[in-house]
């Protein structure tokens, strides 16, 4: 057995982004809603989507294969592969088993891990499981990979603009440039019917919009305050948001993230000694008696703390929203798309030694806040420099996508809906529009077995 290790975290990352998108501004016109409803009200610019040529297996294989290629990974050096997703196309067979086709070719089959599912939280759970494995007595000295991915689609109506699609693959191991803090994870788990998918014949979820927002903000309150308590045990000088260089959130849509950062400031306000509140939070003393549980939809409070936290948002959170704004909700991959966005927003010199918190939320519900430290090695050719450079190459794909008219987008969604459970089935979506290196669905046979190929 290998010796226990420290500084476990993310060694490398790869992000998959669909090759086509619909502009939210055009979608507003197409849907006949007020100008700004999606672009300002939701804070979204573009929404990536997949045709029937891609499914959860293909997008995860695309992200994984690129991670392997771009980092020259020896497949026999991987001891665990775990997937987080809520895009279920088989009630028994895991997405991980399809990913094993890449490993089996090399005879690399001694690999632990399967799929983890709970709405948008599955990727975080898979990541925690994998970090725990590397830090445990079960670890055999090899590295691990986590893949988080989803295709988020909704029926026609107000929820459809909050869709998206994407996948992230992460290489996990010791001596990482992004190191996970030990002993300060703060979780909140309970039961709620805010968002769920009980209809196995449909891709579409059941959503209680107002309850969903309430559950998200309540979970944020619970996780953030417990996270602060744990951090203060490690560092008595910890002062919440002001002690963090960044604050990243799961992003169903960008406007909710901005409101969430304001919510964190409200929690800091309540946690501040009453004698110090006016000094630290000038002009906000009228909110001193407000109870957290009664303020989820308090517009006056929300407006006041969004104004107070505007500069904090610009500095600590907005840099993490670039992909979310231009791709949409990637469910399990959303938070990690935020991590990618945050890392490419600054140079390695600006990132070294920084600490940031991440809030992961999955409806139903499961949530955790945890923190990551960036290493101090910024030398040429360092792991941190290589990681950031590779992510810049990833994100450059955003500018190479095809802009699809809303009607064509709607038609593509209709094809997915009508053929969700069809077998045998041959997809009609174009292969030509896919980025090189993208896996795609060739056919589903009469036994519902799926065949894939890769665009060269």
Automatic annotation (TrEMBL):
GO terms for biological process: acetyl-CoA metabolic process; farnesyl diphosphate biosynthetic process, mevalonate pathway; sterol biosynthetic process. This is Hydroxymethylglutaryl-CoA synthase. InterPro entries: HMG_CoA_synt_C_dom, HMG_CoA_synth_N, HMG_CoA_synthase_euk, Thiolase-like. It is an enzyme of class 2 (transferase). GO terms for molecular function: hydroxymethylglutaryl-CoA synthase activity. Its EC number is 2.3.3.10. The keyword Lipid metabolism applies. Belongs to the thiolase-like superfamily. HMG-CoA synthase family. It comes from the Eukaryota. It comes from Danaus plexippus plexippus. It catalyses: acetoacetyl-CoA + acetyl-CoA + H2O = (3S)-3-hydroxy-3-methylglutaryl-CoA + CoA + H(+). Pathway: Metabolic intermediate biosynthesis; (R)-mevalonate biosynthesis; (R)-mevalonate from acetyl-CoA: step 2/3. Keywords: Lipid biosynthesis, Lipid metabolism, Steroid biosynthesis, Steroid metabolism, Sterol biosynthesis, Sterol metabolism, Transferase. Catalyzes the condensation of acetyl-CoA with acetoacetyl-CoA to form HMG-CoA. CDD domains: init_cond_enzymes.
């Amino acid at each position: 057995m290998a010796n226990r290790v420290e500084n476990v975290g993310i060694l490398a990352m790869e992000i998959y982004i669909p090759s086509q998108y619909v502009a939210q501004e055009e979608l507003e016109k197409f849907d006949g809603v007020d100008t700004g409803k999606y672009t300002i009200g939701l804070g979204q610019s573009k929404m990536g989507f997949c045709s029937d040529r891609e499914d959860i297996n293909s997008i995860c294989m695309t992200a994984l294969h690129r991670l392997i290629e771009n980092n020259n990974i020896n497949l026999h050096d991987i001891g665990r592969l775990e997937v987080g997703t809520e895009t279920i196309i088989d009630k028994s067979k895991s997405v991980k088993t399809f990913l094993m086709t890449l490993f089996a070719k090399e005879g690399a089959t001694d690999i632990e891990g399967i799929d983890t599912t709970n709405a948008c939280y599955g990727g975080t759970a898979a990541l925690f499981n994998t970090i725990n494995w590397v830090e445990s007595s079960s670890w055999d000295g090899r590295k691990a990979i986590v893949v988080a991915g989803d295709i988020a689609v909704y029926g026609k109506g107000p929820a459809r603009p909050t869709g998206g699609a994407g996948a992230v693959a992460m290489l996990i191991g010791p001596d990482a440039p992004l190191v996970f803090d030990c002993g300060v994870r703060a979780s909140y788990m309970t039961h709620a019917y805010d968002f769920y998918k009980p209809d196995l014949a449909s891709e579409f979820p059941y959503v209680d919009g107002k309850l969903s927002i309430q559950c998200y903000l309540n979970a944020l309150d619970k996780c953030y305050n417990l996270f602060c308590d744990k951090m203060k045990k490690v560092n008595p000088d910890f002062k919440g948001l002001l002690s963090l260089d960044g604050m990243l959130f799961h992003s169903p849509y960008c406007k909710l993230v901005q409101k969430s950062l304001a919510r964190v400031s409200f929690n800091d306000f309540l946690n501040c000694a009453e004698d110090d509140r006016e000094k630290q939070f000038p002009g906000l003393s009228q909110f001193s008696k407000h109870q957290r549980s009664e303020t989820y939809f308090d517009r006056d409070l929300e407006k006041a703390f969004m104004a107070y936290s505007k500069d904090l948002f610009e500095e600590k959170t907005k840099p993490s929203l670039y992909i979310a704004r231009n791709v949409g909700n990637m469910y399990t991959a959303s938070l990690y798309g935020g991590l990618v966005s945050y890392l490419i927003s600054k140079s390695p010199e600006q990132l070294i030694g920084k600490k940031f918190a991440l809030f992961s939320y999955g409806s139903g519900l499961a949530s955790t806040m945890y923190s990551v430290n960036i290493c101090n090695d910024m030398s040429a050719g360092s792991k941190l420099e290589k990681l950031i450079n590779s992510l810049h190459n990833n994100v450059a794909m955003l500018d190479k996508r095809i802009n699809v008219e809303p009607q064509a987008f709607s038609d593509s969604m209709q094809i997915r809906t009508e053929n969700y459970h069809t077998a045998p089935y041959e997809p009609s979506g174009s292969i030509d529009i896919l980025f090189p290196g993208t896996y795609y669905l060739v056919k589903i046979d009469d036994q519902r077995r799926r065949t894939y190929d890769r665009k060269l």
